[in-house]
Amino acid sequence: MKRLFRGFSPGFTLIEIMISLSILSIALLSIYAAQGNSLRASGRAENIQTASMLARQKMTEKMIELQKDMDKGKFPDDQINDQGEFEPPFDRFRWEFAVRKVEIPVVENPSDTTGQATGEGPATSTGKEPGAANQAPEAAQANLAKMVTKKISESVREITTKIIWQEMEEDQNIVITTHISKLQ
């Protein structure tokens, strides 16, 4: 009987199988991670879209209330704050609403931090105080700027609606801001 020794085997070796299984497992884990990230991103986009819709709805409701008050001659006070939760199926979202007075900073004279005129310029008719002739227009400008900013602060309100929800154990929010003014 004659035995033939063959140097070539038609099957796969154990090493080849292990290498191909490791490549396959890495590819499947990458696909699984990408799918998880895709689902998280999709859920976040859905939450942001829902929060945007709820913010517009709540802002519209509050603006209608404020407009009714303004039609009666009542301009909203500073620091109106309100908060609450939405009804199901949106009960995982909550809202905060605020009205605040708009404060505009007065720009002081850049050459002097006290807001007083610097005293530069031609001498007055008496010749005692240089620049005294230029102090009156600068003071008038400063007073006018203060009056304008005060009037704006009295007649403009910032309206803010904030929608808050929990996502992955953290608070997420979206804020919508608008302004109203009293033009009388």
The first-to-last residue Cα distance is 118 Å
- Summarize the biggest pleated sheet: 4 strands, antiparallel
- Taking Cα atoms only, what radius of gyration do you get, to the nearest Å? 35 Å
Low-confidence stretches: 112-119
Strand content: 15-25%
DSSP helical segment count: 2
SSE ordering:
HEEHEE
Determine the fraction of residues in helical runs and give it as a percent range. Answer: 40-55%
Domain tally: 1
Estimate the global geometry from the Cα principal axes: elongated
Name the average pLDDT. Answer: 82
Let me know the number of strands.
4
Global structural class: alpha+beta
**Strand neighbour order, sheet with most strands:** 1-2-3-4
Model description:
About 4% of the residues have low confidence. This protein has 184 residues and is an alpha+beta fold. It has one domain. The longest helix has 58 residues. The relative contact order is 0.14. Helices cover 45% and strands 21% of the residues. The chain has a 4-stranded antiparallel beta sheet. It is elongated and about 110 Å long. The protein is built from 2 helices and 4 strands; from the N terminus they run αββαββ.
